[in-house]
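Question thread 4412

I'm putting together a teaching handout and wanted feedback from people who do this every day. The idea is simple: show students a protein as raw sequence, then show them the structure tokens that encode its fold, then repeat with a second protein so they can compare. Below is the first pair exactly as I plan to print it.
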Amino acid sequence: MEFKQLVEAAEKWCTGNPFDLIFAEENDERRLDFYAEPGVSFYVLCPGETDSFHVWSESEDCLPFLQLAQDYISSCGKKTLLEVLEKVFTSFRPLLGLPDIDDDSFEPYHADMEGEPGPDHQQMGVSQQ
């Protein structure tokens, strides 16, 4: 993908979240820099012909949160810029003060291992007569 198209995709992505594209450079490296309050920053190195995406941050506070995105990028299959940016956004949700989306997806499951099964639950292998 041409760098201009990557920049346009990044700008469009920024309209739906707190990040701003603050710098785009194609000369030395195909790099896109992003920033959001309160001091959350990262950059993406975009692939040339054969490389894959790479995400990093100059901020020591942000680096640990990028591990999920880095693992995702290094997993099998080619990734798009938008897929990478979404994974970074998910990784940074706690730093941005946003709820973790995984917490809202599932209701907590509490197994009562010591108690008797309730009236709605049958014990497997035991016939109740």
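The second pair follows. I'd like the answer to focus on this one:
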Amino acid sequence: MAAPRRPSGGGLRRAPHDGRLDEINKEFLCDPKFSNEKGLEEKLAVFKEKYMEFDLNNQGEIDLMSVKRMMEKLGAPKTHLELKRMISEVTGGVSDTISYQDFVNLMLGKRSAVLKLVMMFEGKANESSRKPSGPPPERDIASLP
């Protein structure tokens, strides 16, 4: 008799992780240091979505390979040394992985780290690369190349 199959776990493992990120977002919303930040709640929702997208191992941290994948996806591959430098800049050299708190501090902070610029660039690229919806416009013979 075959053993019962378990669900893949992707959604199941994300739930506690998702709740932990929501708690951290609430801390940022209550932090007086960020009270003047416009659209903070929306920004935090976007940051959470991006963070979860690149947390490949669902451990609650972005590691070297996750940053490598992100940079490759953006068309800007980096060497391991460059990636380690980027992570070190975000964490202050304390860790080899980027926690969600470090990530949000980076994105909301005034410093312009390479990773922050890349993430902002990706957001702008996604906005400009949206395809128009609906049928294509009619063309006549004169408009063809």
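Top answer:
Good format. For the second protein you could add a caption like this: The helical segments are 10-30, 40-54, 64-73, 80-91, 100-108, 114-128. Residues 1-15 have pLDDT under 50 and may be disordered.
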